[in-house]
Amino acid sequence: MHIATLMDLIHELLKEFSCLHFSLIDPENQTSQKAGEHAHVCQQYGTHAIMVGGSTVSKRQKVHDTVKEIKKKVHIPVILFPNSAVAISRNADYVFFMELLNSLEYKYRGGEQLEGALLIKKWGIIPISMGYIVVSTSTKPTTLEKRGRLDAIHQKDIEKAVKYAVYAEMRGMSCVYLEAGSNAEYPVATNMVHAVSTAIDIPVIVGGGIKTADMAQEKIDAGARAIVNGTATEKNMKLIKEIIGRIGHASHSPQK
Ligand code: 1GP
Question: For the domain 3-252, what is the CATH code?
Answer without folding.
Answer: 3.20.20.390
